[in-house]
Amino acid sequence: MNFKYVIIGGSAGGIGAIESIRDIDKAGSIAVISDETIPQYSKPMISEYIGEGAKLEEIIFRPLRFWEEHSVNIFSDKKVAKVDVSAKTVMLENGESIGFEKLLIATGGKPIIPKIDGAERKGVFTFVNLADAKLLLGRLQNVKEAVVVGGGLIGVSLAEALLKLRKKVTIVELKDRILNLILDMEGASMVADAVEHAGVKIITGRSVTRIAGRILSEKQVGGVVLDDGTKMSCDIVVLTIGVTPRIEVIDPRQIKVNRVVVVDRFMATSAQDIYACGDVAETFDFVNNDFRLLPLWPLAYVGGRIAGSNMAGDKVGYPGGTQMCSLNYFGIPVISIGVVNPPKESGYEVLAKLNPESRTYRKIILQNDVIVGMILVGGIVNAGVILDLMKNRIPIGEFKENLLSEEFGLIHLAEPLRLEMLRRN
Amino acid sequence: MYRKKSIIIIIMIYIVPTQLCTRKASSIALRIDKQRLEIRFLKKIYAVEDHCIGCRLCEVHCVTQHSKSRELVRAHRKEVITPSRVRVSEHGPISFAVQCRHCSEPACVYSCLSGAMSKDPISGLVIHDRERCIGCWTCVMVCPVGAVIPDITTSKVVAKCDLCADIEMPACVQNCPNRALLFQEVPP
Ligand SMILES: Cc1cc2nc3c(=O)[nH]c(=O)nc-3n(C[C@H](O)[C@H](O)[C@H](O)COP(=O)(O)OP(=O)(O)OC[C@H]3O[C@@H](n4cnc5c(N)ncnc54)[C@H](O)[C@@H]3O)c2cc1C
After folding, report:
1. Which domain holds residue B53?
2. Largest CB tally within 10 Å, which of A6, A257, A361, B30?
């Protein structure tokens, strides 16, 4: 079997690529291989699947007829074992091999499993895909208490979902605050207040050193022990400390890997005709001006679009992304973009305004008069206007004094820029 | 020569059926006949700063148009309303109204986590499906003109301009007393 385009992974990155390939090449054959049954669901929505009781149809990112509509041969429930760069084929685990002219590796990430004594016990889960969510949901009925290890984006979203099911939830976070990669102390404590107020217990600065068994059935989770010796009982433990690229289909002698698949601005890997995007690959970071792992849905999708255009013969460079998260957990809107915890004494200027009464916080980080980061808690309107100023490295000049106003928007920009934006097409 | 032609024909055959089926899905398209639709969707709303007096009638009429009754007084006094999808900004002597630009490379569509935002291939409209929206505010984070508005009343769904697709002229444009909003094919 041979196809013009072969894509491994049919999630954000894979779908982005298909949509842009079909904008250019309506007829070239496309095959998508995924080890999931319905690959096109929204990963961030697996929390809704748990907490809101959402059905599978409600968490799909593209309709079931998507593959057919885009004339894609979908190989679901099939796992790729190896990519053979010189033969230009991918080998499936079942022994089949599929030839390609252009290949996209969009295999995403897998959960990082910390080395914890007792992690093999029944009742220890990860939470990165629908299969994880199904396993967890299947187990939840008799669960009263849950411990979530890791207070990042995924941990907090899962805590909210579990709370909706009236479980007693504790988040154990190693760092001094939850969401430490995307928030500073002020922002994180505002979110933590809301999380705790809702009923979730947060323990920071501690790690789980042991998962203990239940008294009468040692194989089942019965509790956890923290590094300070504290013991807590629980029925399940969910490990959400992060994801790491799924690079096992790649031979690093053939495709350059630096923990993450190395790509250029065209999403091309070091091997000819092979591209990569999303959580498995690097993304160009326009703030830091370098390539790094930015495991975020929008960046995976856009990376896929860029890869697809180039695979179909256009030459399109990725302007880049940066760390960018928007959360609405526990009723508190938060947006975090770029450098949010600038190192001290390093030429950054920080503008910040905290309003405890209205529970709003606004922090803008500048470097050489250009915005390089921001945190918005509470008031998030016009966040995208600021992101656009960041992307285009617009010097802040006159509107600096307005940046901390919740009303800040296009109106504060100088006339030519303002008009250009207003008439944007 | 002959070859080229046949390629074009094949491509056209391919395009036509997919367009037909997207059209079927688009409720807007069903309501308006094809030719008018095509002309209408080449048009965009343009704000004319110099004519805007900041009266906010565009906001009032946007809310009315998107209310249950579509009656001005009734909507504002008796109904649960969604926020206006057009927003007047004011700063010193300057004011203007901003709404969705229906961008050709829509950041909101490219960033949506749930698939609720889409760009209609025929009309070019950027469409928001309330049912599928989870209120993650990712679109708010990326809209370069600040036109996606978090809807606090439902705390879950965003509100954005739909160009009032089922009436002749968008309500904000029609009701602007000063022609500070224009609905036309080219920028003023
Ligand atoms: C609970 C949760 C919440 C999240 N919340 C947010 C959020 O709020 N905002 C945000 O921006 N991001 C969020 N993310 C991250 C986001 O989901 C990822 O960045 C995104 O899914 C990456 O897309 P991708 O296409 O690169 O990879 P993935 O979505 O991981 O898809 C890769 C696909 O490839 C398949 N695959 C892998 N290897 C093989 C193989 N060898 N053979 C066949 N198939 C294979 C996988 O099974 C999978 O289906 C969240 C993630 C989770 C889990």
Report:
1. 43-185
2. A6
